[in-house]
């Protein structure tokens, strides 16, 4: 059974361990810890074990941005990434949700296109020879919290 929910502080070590199984290089524990403390992580649990997560915030020009989406390799192609991206959409407080991926990451590009994201631009020189593609999805406008005009 798969459950998508907001990460709790007890999920921190599990999220970091999952991140370390697929991400080589400098650890992202501090980044993950801050996101967890701010309630900016949703996790996908399969049989009570964290098998994927998404981190989102308002770091991209004050717009909601999916900063990191990760699913354990053994659990890919089972709908977890789609469910996690939908969770980020539900948390989005603006009319636009942005994300990005390397030009070489064809599975993420296909996911974005399947979920209704469109290319919005690109950034050169982040990863040598592999531009970062920016995607946006236009969402329903969120009404203001009060009725002031």
**Proper CATH architecture:** 3-Layer(aba) Sandwich
Low-confidence stretches: none
First-to-last CA distance = 46 Å
Number of continuous helical runs: 4
Q: The biggest beta sheet, please? A: 7 strands, mixed
What general form does the structure show? globular
Strand content: 25-35%
What is the CATH level 1 assignment? Alpha Beta
Rg measurement, Å: 16 Å
Structural summary, described in words:
There is one protein chain. With 149 residues, the protein is an alpha+beta fold. The protein has one domain (2-138): 3-Layer(aba) Sandwich (Aminopeptidase). It contains 4 helices and 7 strands, in the order E-H-H-E-E-E-H-E-H-E-E. It has helices at residues 12-22, 29-37, 80-91, 106-114; strands spanning 2-6, 41-46, 49-60, 63-71, 96-102, 118-123, 132-138. The protein has a 7-stranded mixed beta sheet, with helices on both faces. It is globular. It starts with a strand and ends in an 11-residue tail after the last strand. The model has no long low-confidence stretch (mean pLDDT 91).
């Amino acid at each position: 059974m798969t459950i998508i929910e907001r990460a709790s502080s007890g999920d921190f070590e599990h999220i970091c361990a999952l991140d370390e199984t697929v991400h080589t290089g400098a650890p992202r524990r501090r980044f993950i810890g801050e996101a967890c403390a701010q309630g900016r992580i949703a996790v996908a649990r399969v049989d009570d074990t964290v098998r994927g997560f998404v981190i989102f915030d308002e770091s991209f020009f004050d717009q909601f941005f999916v900063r990191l989406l990760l699913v354990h390799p053994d659990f890919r192609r089972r709908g977890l990434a789609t469910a996690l991206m939908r969770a980020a959409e539900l948390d989005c407080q603006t009319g636009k949700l942005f994300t990005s991926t390397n030009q070489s990451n064809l599975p993420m590009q296909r996911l974005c296109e399947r979920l209704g994201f469109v290319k919005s631009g690109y950034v050169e020189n982040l990863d040598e020879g592999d531009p970062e593609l920016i995607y946006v999805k236009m969402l329903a406008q969120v009404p203001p919290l009060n009725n002031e005009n």
